[in-house]
Automatic annotation (TrEMBL), chains A, B, C:
Sorted UniProt keywords: Hydrolase
Name of this protein: Phosphohydrolase
Organism superkingdom: Bacteria
Gene Ontology terms for molecular function: hydrolase activity
Natural source organism: Nocardioides guangzhouensis
Family, per entry: Belongs to the phosphosulfolactate synthase family.
Pfam families: ComA
Length: 257, 257, 257
C-alpha cells in the first residue's frame, strides 16, 4: 500500500538508525504475537529487549531471535538476567549462552545486584567484546536515588567503558529512575543524563504515553525511547510524527487554509 | 455453537443498530489481531475508529478496511487527523484520501485545533456530503473545560449541522471531557450532552470499566459507548447484559428459587 | 529447544500441580489468542477461569474448552455467572449446562448475590458432586468488608463443605477483598485466610505485579496465584523463579565470582 503524503510532518530517521531508536520491551510475547507485531511495525523498531529473565524460560526463543534477525532488529538480553548471573558467579556462562542462542546485544546494568561501578565496567568491557552493549543507569529501588552529578558521571563513564548507548532506568512502570513515583519526570535527572552522554547516545525508558510525549516535545521526534510494548509502537510513531493531540502543535503548524 | 438461554437478561439491540452502539478505538492493531477480534466479537461492534493519525502510517489499512466492510462495521477516521489536516489547509485532501481508501465514516472534532464552532460546522457539512459523521464535543486539554450550557449547545448544533451521532470526549485515558482527572464522572456534563442530543444520538467515550458500568446503570444496556479496546468488547457486552458484578442488580432480579 | 541451566533457581512444582497453581482470568480472549498463549505457557497454567459471565456469550467456547482439555488445564466457570443463575432460581440449569459444554471446574462465590453462608454451602455441595470446586471468599463491594475472623471461618467451612481450593477475592483490579482500594495488601486478612485453609489450599487473586511479588516473597515460589492475565503468565513465572528484580534477593544469593 502507498502511504498518504498530504501532510507536512517532521523529518524522521529510517533504519538502520543511530538516532530516533525505538526499543521494545518484550515481557514474554508468544511467537505468533511477535510475528504479527513485526509484520506491521518492524520499520519502526530498532531494538527488542527480552525483559529481565524471560529469555531464560522461553522455549520459543530461537524462533523469536530468527524473526528479529530477519527484520534487522537488535535482539537484546535483559540486564537483570545478567545481574543475577553475575551475582551467582555465572556472568560468563550467561554471555556464552546468549551468544550461542543468537543474541547480538546485551544490557549491562546494576539495578539490583550489589555491583560497584568498577564491577559494572569490568562486565561491560567483557560484554562489549562480543555484543552491542546497552548499559543502564539508575536503580530499580525507588529508595535508592542517584544525584544528578552521579547520573552524569555514570552515563559518561559507561560510554567510555564501551557502551554503545546508555539506557536511563524507568522500569516497565515508569515510576523510578528518571521518573518520580507518580510517573512525572525528574527533569534535572534527564538533563544530567544528556549532559553525560549527549542526546544521541541516551535511550530513555518511557513506558507511559505522557512520558513519551514530554520527551518528544523536549527533544524532537528522533529522541531514543525504550521499554515500549510492541503493540504500542504504531501509537508511539504517531506521537513522534505529531499525529496525536499530545505532540501536534497546531499553533505552530497553522497556515491559513 | 448454540448459546445458552437459561437466564433472563435485558433486551439488547442487534445489528444494524441505531442505539446500543459499541465503538472501538484501534490504536494500531495488527491485521491478525483485528481479524481475530472481529471473528469473535463482530456482532457486538458497530463502529471501528482508527485512533487519531494511526491510519496515516498503517500499511495494513486496506486489509483492515476490507475486513470491517465484510463484517458490516463502520470504519471511522480519527478526528485528530482531520483536525491536523484542516490546520495545514489539507482538510479536503484528507477527506478525499479517506474516501478513496475506503472509510465510510469520519469523526469531526475540534479538540486540539484552534477551530471556531463555525469552522467545525463548515467542516462537518463538507464531511457529511460523503460520509457518516460522528462529531465530537469536548476538549482534549484538561485545562479547557466547557460549561454544561456549552455542551448542550454544541451537541445540538452539531446534530443540526449534519452529524449522525455526537461523541463526548473522554480520550483513551478517560480523564478529560465528561470525566474528571481521576476518571470520575462529571454528571452535570453527561446530563447536558443528553439534553442537547437525546440519549440515542450521544456516544459516550468510556474506556474504563467503572465508567462503562456507571453509564449502563444510568441509561440501560443500550447506551452508546465509545473508545472501547477491541479485546475488551466481550467484557463490555457482559456488562451491558448484567453478567458482571458491576451491573447485575441481584436485589431486583431476585426470585425465590 | 533446550532451556539453559546455568543459574541456581528455587525448586518449582510441575504439572499436575497441587501447589504453586497459576490460575488465569480470561475476560473474553479470542480462540486464536488463547491457542497462542497456551502453546507458549501451558506448562505454567493450572486453571483457566472464564471470568464472570463471559462464557455465556462466547460462541468459541467449545473450541477453547477443547484446547484446555488437550493441555491438561482445569476449565473453570466464573462465580458471578453461577451467582446470577442462583438468584434467578437457575443454579441447577447453570451447572447442567456447564457440565454439558465441558467445564470440569466451577467457582462458587457469594460476592454479589444475597446468599447466606448456608446457601453458599448448599450450592457448593451440589457443585462438588460433578465438578472440581473453587470456592471464593470476600465481597466485590469495597464497602462490605469481612473481619479476619470471618475470613478464617468462611475459608475453613468452605473446605469442609467440599471445596478443593479457596480463592481470596481481589477482582480483576486488585482493589477489594485481600487488598485495600489502593491495591496494598491487607496482611491481617491474608494471614486469616491462610489460618483457615493452610497455604496449600488458598489461591490468592493477585492481578498486579506488586501483589504477586509480595505473595511470592512471603510464601515462596509455589504460592497459589489467581486472576493472572494469560499474556502475563511468563512474566509471573519469572517472578516465581527470582528472575525479576522484585523477587531476586541478590544479597542472599551472592557468592564471590
Amino acid at each position: 500500500m502507498t502511504l498518504p503524503t498530504f501532510l507536512s510532518l517532521p523529518e524522521r530517521s529510517t533504519k538502520p538508525r543511530t538516532v530516533g531508536l525505538t526499543h521494545v520491551l518484550d515481557k514474554g510475547m508468544t511467537p505468533e504475537s511477535a510475528q504479527s507485531a513485526l509484520a506491521t511495525a518492524a520499520r519502526f523498531i530498532d531494538v527488542w529487549k527480552f525483559g529481565w529473565g524471560t529469555a531464560y524460560i522461553d522455549t520459543a526463543l530461537p524462533d523469536k531471535l530468527a524473526m528479529l534477525k530477519d527484520y534487522g532488529i537488535h535482539a537484546c538480553l535483559g540486564g537483570t538476567l545478567l545481574e543475577i548471573s553475575w551475582a551467582q558467579g555465572k556472568a560468563q556462562d550467561c554471555l556464552d549462552w546468549a551468544a550461542d542462542v543468537g543474541f547480538d546485544t546485551v544490557e549491562v546494568s546494576r539495578g539490583v545486584a550489589p555491583m560497584t561501578l568498577g564491577d559494572k565496567h569490568d562486565l561491560l568491557r567483557r560484554a562489549a567484546a562480543a555484543f552491542v552493549v546497552l548499559s543502564e543507569v539508575g536503580n530499580k529501588d525507588p529508595e535508592k536515588v542517584l544525584t544528578p552529578e552521579q547520573w552524569t558521571a555514570e552515563v559518561a563513564s559507561d560510554l567510555t567503558a564501551g557502551a554503545n548507548w546508555v539506557i536511563t532506568e524507568g522500569r516497565e512502570s515508569g515510576t523510578v529512575g528518571i521518573y518520580r513515583a507518580d510517573g512525572s519526570i525528574r527533569e534535572d535527572v534527564v538533563a544530567a543524563a544528556v549532559l553525560g552522554g549527549g542526546i544521541e547516545r541516551v535511550l530513555f525508558e518511557a513506558p507511559r504515553k505522557d512520558q513519551q510525549a514530554w520527551l518528544i516535545r523536549e527533544f524532537g521526534c528522533d529522541v531514543n525511547l525504550a521499554n515500549i510494548p510492541a503493540d504500542e509502537v504504531p501509537a508511539l510513531e504517531t506521537l513522534r510524527l505529531g499525529l496525536r493531540a499530545d505532540t501536534c502543535d497546531l499553533t505552530r503548524q497553522w497556515q491559513p487554509a
